[in-house]
Design a protein that fits this description.
Layout lengths: L1 E4 L5 H12 L3 H6 L13 H23 L3 E7 L2 H12 L8 E2 L2 E12 L3 H6 L5 H16 L10 H13 L10 E9 L8 H16 L2 E6 L4 H6 L2 E8 L11 E7 L2
Parallel strand pairs: 5-6
Antiparallel strand pairs: 1-2, 2-4, 3-4, 4-5, 6-8, 7-8
Helix pairs in contact: 1-3, 3-6
Bound molecules: coenzyme A.
The site of coenzyme A (COA) has 20 residues, from strand 5, helix 8, strand 6 and helix 9.
Length: 259
Amino acid sequence: MHLRPYRNQDADAIAAIKARCDLVDPLALFYRRSSTNPDPDPQQKGDEKRWRTHVKSTRRSLCLEILMPGTVCWVLVLDDEDVEAENNRQNQKHGSSATTNNNETVVGFTIWSRHGSSDMARRWQGHGEKLTTRVKAFVSHLNLSIRYPFDSSIDRHRMAQFVNRLKSGPCPEPSEKERWELEAMYIHPLYQRRGFGGRALQWGVERALQERVRIWVWSTDAGKPLYLKNGFDEVGKVDFGDIIHHSEAVTVSVMVWGM
Ligand SMILES: CC(C)(COP(=O)(O)OP(=O)(O)OC[C@H]1O[C@@H](n2cnc3c(N)ncnc32)[C@H](O)[C@@H]1OP(=O)(O)O)[C@@H](O)C(=O)NCCC(=O)NCCS
């Protein structure tokens, strides 16, 4: 597996991966209208259409998020030897695999954002392309502040509940301006627990080391073991148990690397 920078033609692949992961994420299930079936029965045209609409909505949100200056998206692509091993595995397994585009199999992605005003931060934020940078920032910011107007899979009332709880939770805010934030990390469910997430995380850890800054991430319960294993500390936690009626505790943990 290797990482390469995101290209526009990866949008469908990364949206499909996120949509699949969201199906088992209690928080995403709370604020998304996602009673969809990722492996639709070809006889049930309605299912297939609903799933496609859901992935398209997710794609719109992701594409707008990536526009924000200082945002870097990496995709994880299988190498030839991984594909061979995977083909053998798939012969024995059910479920659709990750998306193949241009003969590449994209199995995950990460979205990072560089905050700050140092020369290094401005380099990541596209210093020098002022007009396009501002337009992109405006569009991306609008999307966030109006809470994803182009994403029909979002339940806006529940999203507002989620965001308000995050904001009012007893969590520390980043005190340092110069930092990396990990905005998203998704590995296709069929490819999890093979070390891909850890390797994707490594890019940010190396950057943070070189730039002598910390990394902040607001982690799902599913992500937390990976961050703990990779040297992050938990500095706060928001509980969603009372608004999400789920059988297990649901939290978002604020994790920081470089404390
Ligand atoms: C969280 C996620 C990115 C982890 O990716 P991954 O490729 O499965 O992670 P790795 O295989 O690199 O895991 C490295 C280590 O992290 C820990 N870890 C990862 N997932 C774990 C899990 N579900 N339970 C316990 N430990 C886990 C383990 O120590 C693991 O090492 P091991 O497999 O040798 O025990 C992936 O499960 C995912 O995409 N989940 C859905 C989306 C999500 O919640 N993303 C996090 C957003 S903050």
